[in-house]
Specification:
Layout lengths: L4 E3 L7 E4 L3 E7 L5 E7 L6 E7 L1 E3 L2 E7 L6 E7 L2 E2 L4 E2 L14 E2 L33 E3 L23 E4 L1 H5 L13 H4 L2 H10 L3 E4 L8 E4 L2 E4 L23 H12 L3 E6 L16 H9 L2 E2 L2 E5 L14 H16 L5 E4 L2 H4 L1 E2 L2 E2 L4 H8 L7 E4 L19 E4 H12 L5 H8 L3 H4 L9 E3 L9 H4 L35 H19 L4 E5 L31 H19 L23 E3 L8 H4 L6 E7 L4 E7 L5 E4 L9 E6 L15 E4 L3 E7 L1
Parallel strand pairs: 13-14, 13-26, 14-17, 17-20, 20-23, 23-24, 24-25, 25-26
Antiparallel strand pairs: 1-7, 2-3, 3-7, 4-5, 4-8, 6-7, 8-12, 9-10, 11-12, 15-16, 18-19, 21-22, 27-28, 28-29, 29-33, 30-32, 31-33
Length: 692
């Protein structure tokens, strides 16, 4: 006799739900023949009861336990065929996580028991393991989602053209914060501390975009050894947060953080990974989806169902072509908006989510589901518009309402400030929102997420300090990580005491940050770039949970503090200038009775660009002139190693001018226009002029 009286319960909603009198459990599996609900003690260390779930309604197995309450620890055992060659991988010896579980307890221990097969068998996954995995895997905990006082909190709702995104790693951002007790460092509670929030507010960013915070269990098994899974791009649960990010195990820490950031005008965006899971390929562990219904949750190789179709490079593509799996993803997104009040999402390898019959389709179920969803219409939706499969590069192909990471912007801006030839024609379109990519289907100029650096790749400091990657610390003999960085070390590799090299690096960092903030589109800044954080040349630190990736709060030099102040000034300047609030793309056509264009491009001679200027491979400077309500704003980008005497264009009835920005800080503050209307633009610099 169990501790709880059981009855049939309901097939919806999925997961575990407390109604004040008991808990309803519902689990999807289309191919199981039997399901058991396993109850554990509070720590999850001992299984104390099992309940057979006998009711199956439309492939939803459900049961209700009267008297059960929040805090109850549970997991599932699912029975069925074990025929890997046919795609069946049921194994009741493996305790399975609830895909809809909101909280986890316990630590994943990489033991042979967590695999559905005998890893010592020569037959590998064709063999069958009878080892009980329960002692080695986390369990779910029933929660009460309605037991939280949000006060008057709601999504902030910045428009994309108002947004300045700050990509950050939750743990790395506060792990070295000296103002926090050890228990709060690297947690949601640490990020909501006044020291963290006040810094973000001081900097001026509008939106924090966290690398994955869905449960990913902190480490993983690879090639026979354990490595840190620092970035978190191998989610095991799409509802439960990563346990190590909770300082006291209470998921309300997330709500506290969101509410605190919202009070200070800062949005919360989540980087989400629905394209694959941490179970990996056919030789990976059985922790959740594989054991619940492998045939439904993953896309199998049609020629050999023992293996998977994989467009992610991580083992197996999640099967959003299955309506039940699509529902899981959509329910997860709505949960984080409705119950956690987050303001938007960045979708990792979003192309995989939009495939039908292994081809990217704008008519995919996922894109249609997002487009019609009343909840998701209220938040930001950002795509990483590529994966590693056939036809995976889909920059510009997402629907109106989506914004997309623009890697063409990243590469061109890097190459321009590296001094490469033949960059001028392309940089003009990158500065103005990449219209050749996004100007269709009534999309807006803010569809382009402009970034120069991201978590993946060199930091800004390393971009100007290293010619090649230095990833030996990752344990893969420097083979991992891209070799195409478009970086230049300024003359010496790595750290240097050479003052000229240091000056060039600092000038180019400031110039690139200026370019980012003076480009049309939505800027994304990466945590630490504002004070020249280095990863010592590592451009793929996915496994480095240490000083390589943690943000240093102490020991910041005066030069680094100057850079922080400079970035703060840039952000304030961008917010102040009304030209960046525009939604429509530029046309280059005359837009008023005085004959002025909506944007014009000028050379240092004061004349508009000619065809020969656009195709001059040795040209390393360009400027745009944009009319605003009171006059003009002119941005000059000098990517050469020499200063340039720049003649301002002839403008009727405009005689007053002011330097709003000089990234080099070499132009005199009291400079006046003079009769020649010339200004000396320093090498490797960006100058912004207001003309009235």
């Amino acid at each position: 006799m169990g501790s709880f009286k059981s009855r049939i319960g309901k097939s919806y909603p999925l997961g575990s739900h407390y109604d004040g009198e008991g808990v309803n459990f519902a689990l999807f599996s289309a191919h199981a023949i039997k399901v058991e609900l396993c109850i554990f003690n509070e720590s999850g260390s001992e299984e104390i009861e099992r309940y057979s779930i006998d009711k199956n309604t439309d492939n939803i197995w459900h049961i209700y336990l009267e008297g059960a309450k929040p805090g109850l620890v549970y997991g599932y055992r699912v029975y069925g065929l074990y025929k890997p060659s046919e795609g069946y991988r049921f194994n009741p010896h493996k305790l399975l996580i609830d895909p809809y579980g909101k909280k986890l307890v316990g630590t994943l221990i990489w033991n042979k028991a967590i695999f559905g097969y005998d890893i010592d068998s020569p037959d590998k996954d064709l063999s069958f393991s009878e080892l009980d995995s329960a002692p080695y895997v986390p369990k779910n905990v029933v929660v009460d989602d309605n037991d939280y006082n949000w006060e008057d909190d709601s999504q902030i709702g910045y428009q994309m053209n108002e947004s300045i995104i700050y990509e950050t790693h939750l743990r790395g951002a506060t792990k070295l914060n000296p103002f926090l007790p050890d228990t709060k460092r690297g947690t949601f509670a640490g990020f909501s501390d006044d020291s963290t929030v006040n810094y973000l507010k001081h900097l001026g960013v509008t939106s924090v975009e966290f690398l994955p915070v869905h449960a990913f269990f902190g480490n993983r098994h690879k090639r026979g050894y354990i490595i840190d899974n620092y970035w978190g791009y191998e989610s095991f649960s799409f509802f439960a947060p990563e346990q190590s990010y909770l300082s006291n195990g209470d998921i309300n820490e997330i709500r506290d953080m969101v509410k605190k950031l919202h009070k200070h005008g800062i949005e919360v965006l989540l980087d989400v990974v629905y394209n694959h899971t941490g179970e990996g390929n056919h030789l990976g562990p059985t922790l959740c989806y594989r054991g619940i219904d492998n045939l439904s949750y993953y896309i199998l190789n049609p020629d050999n169902k023992r293996t998977y179709h994989d467009t992610t490079g991580c083992g197996a593509s999640f099967n959003l072509q299955n309506p039940n799996v699509l529902r899981l993803v959509m329910d997860s997104l709505r949960y984080w908006v409705e119950k956690m009040h987050v303001d938007g999402f960045r979708f990792d390898l979003a192309t995989t989510l939009c495939r039908r019959n292994n081809e990217f389709k704008q008519t995919s179920g996922f894109l249609y589901a997002v487009a019609q969803d009343e909840i998701l219409k209220k938040v930001k939706i950002i795509a990483e518009p590529w994966d590693v499969g056939y036809g995976g590069y889909q920059l510009g192909a997402f629907l109106p309402g989506w914004s997309e990471w623009n890697d063409k912007y990243r590469d061109n801006i890097r190459r321009f400030w590296k001094g490469d030839q033949f960059q001028i024609a392309e940089i003009a379109t990158r500065l103005t929102g990449s219209s050749e990519i996004f100007n269709h289907s009534n999309r807006t100029i803010s569809s382009s997420i402009n970034f120069i650096t991201a978590h993946d790749g060199f930091t800004l400091n390393d971009l100007v300090s290293y010619n090649t990657k230095h990833n030996s610390a990752n344990g893969e003999s420097n083979r991992d990580g891209t070799d195409t960085n478009w970086s230049w070390n300024s003359g010496e590799e790595g750290e240097t005491a050479n003052n000229l090299v240091q000056k060039n690096r600092f000038d180019r960092m400031k110039a690139m940050l200026s370019t980012l903030m003076l480009s049309f589109g939505t800027p994304m800044l990466v945590f630490g770039d504002e004070f020249a954080r280095s990863q010592m040349g590592n451009n793929n630190p996915y496994c480095q949970d240490n000083a390589i990736t943690w943000v240093a709060w102490e020991g910041i030099s005066s030069k680094q503090r100057q850079l922080i102040s400079f970035v703060r000034k840039l952000i304030r300047l961008r917010k102040k200038l009304k030209i960046f609030s525009r939604e429509q793309f530029f046309t280059g056509k005359i837009v008023d009775e005085q004959g002025y264009k909506d944007i014009a491009w000028y050379t240092e001679k004061g004349s508009e660009f000619s065809s020969s200027d656009w195709h001059d491979g040795n040209r390393h400077s360009i400027s745009y002139l944009v009319k605003d309500n009171k006059g003009f704003v002119m941005a000059i980008f000098n990517g050469s190693h020499q200063p340039i005497d720049w003649l301002l264009p002839p403008l009727n009835n405009f005689t007053s001018w002011n330097v709003l920005l000089d990234s080099s800080n070499q132009i005199s503050k009291d400079i006046s226009l003079g009769a020649s209307k010339k200004i000396k633009v320093p090498a490797w610099s960006v100058v912004l002029i207001e003309i009235k």
